[in-house]
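Researcher: Let's run the pair from yesterday's discussion. Sequence first, then tokens, for each.
Model: Starting with the first of the pair.
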Amino acid sequence: MSTPDFNLLLTLDVLLAEGSVARAARRLRLSPSAMSRALARLRETTGDPLLVRAGRGLVPTPRAMELREQVGQLVQDAEAVLRPAKKLRLKQLSRTFTLRTREGFVENFGPALMARIAAEAPGVRLCFVQKLDKDSAPLRDGIVDLETGVVGKTAAPELRVQALFRDRFIGVVRMGHPLGKGKLTPERYAAARHIGVSRRGLGAEPVDEALASLALERDIATLVGGFSTALALARASDLVATVPERHTGNLRDGMHSFALPVATPQFTVSLLWHPRLDADPAHRWLRGCVREVCAGQDAVS
């Protein structure tokens, strides 16, 4: 079965509204002969004459009368679909967005982001899920709306990416820790007992590479799965945590943070989303909120 020409719906709607081939042609900016041909095609497609001559004019058949309201609604619905999106009304917006982030992002940026969302769009709910890997499938499949992280080689090439902030690794110890006093050398840092974060990506591998170039190696006393756990242990012990600075600002309150005694490269934390959501007004607004919240939160050393 061949696909019908949906352009005929608009033609039929105008013909039924005008009841005249000439007036319908003017309205659609067609020649009378082109409109007559379109009417002939409509008659062939529907199997009904639709408009028949009555004196000098045309009158609709019962089938045409039956179709008039239905066709008019179809045309209106089609125009609504093809029309640009309406202006976003944040106060009336009711929607749930899922954000996938590394540990520490919610704790550090979540309060300011939630306050911003509540003030501008109280009907919006944010669902935060933990980012355990760099698989792009959740974004591609629509399970996740936004994601933060360091863009790696495994990221899907079609994803949209926008930088949020630059970050670096720092050392963190409890107040009164011996490393908080005196000159911090690579040797003193390496000799202390450390907490290792086992997940790759934003892990502390660059620190170990920098120490290895000096023939030094950290004394890893324990391994944990995330930065907040590492900081909690460091807060209550003499262990040293090495964590991203911007990513853990609020988590380090009341602790002593220090620049590492070896050079490590900075890295960029970015916002990622699927291109199908690129033009969505509500999604665009949320992206702006995340960017501004991250930009407005300065590093705390």
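Model: Moving on to the second of the pair.
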Amino acid sequence: MSPLAAHGGLPTKRGVSPSCVGLPAGAWPTFTDFLVERFPAITRQTWLERMAAGLVADEFGVAVTPERPYRGHMRLYYYRALPVEPRIPFEAAVLFQDEHLVVADKPHFLPVTPSGHYLQETLLVRLKNQLGIDSLIPIHRIDRETAGLVLFSVRPTERDAYQALFRRHEVVKHYEAVARWRPDLQFPLQRKTRIVGDEPFFRQREAPGEANSETHVEVLQVRGEQALYALSPVTGKKHQLRVHMNALGLPIRNDRMYPPVEPTPEDDYARPLQLLARSIAFADPLTGQPRRFESRLNLLPG
């Protein structure tokens, strides 16, 4: 399937692929009525303007017009737009690129993919525009607040071959973090617990039950009352390293969510989360070559 066919005939615009919404069975008179109800933050006038500009289409590439009767059990494609999107003043570096892979060194505060208030100011969209590769797709992700290595597949059809390595725990990942020093803990140590969703929705927490997360923690350097830690996650649960370090009484320096603070503070570019995706290694499933990449970024001194 071509990229255009996959997106209802709509091309990528400024590095942003069309968004998709599934249409359930229902009695909406028109597609417009459904979209206005489904996305209450977007006005009817905005949808009419998008349709007039040819920016809404069905999965067959047919343009959606304001009075077109509603039909369920299909997909619509459209372009998201943000009225104001402040520039994130940090740049990513491309460390490696071939016909299969792109490896980027992501700065703190930059999201990997579009979501919420972020569209152009994301690593994926910036790389698409910079490299001219509309098909680029992330193989894995790291938190917006975390810096370091992110891998992208150049060809969407090859993505699963790389993601299978993560599912089979055949990728060796090492992170570094700055947190307070606890001489009463015995290192190296293993944290193996159950992580579940918390409130609000973007937080996670440990809970009783069968473990679904595992992290190995070592000390690299003690710096007075703080230390530089090496974190090696075996699993990849959301916020896993931040949750595990906080549960050990070692909250990562400048973490705004662990331990929880209400309300969550706004970004402070002078105080980035001291967590870095330092290195990643695996056997390339397509070429058979051993791959190892290392971030060129560094955490703040103690």
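Researcher: Give me one sentence on the second I can quote.
Model: The chain is about 15% helix and 30% strand.
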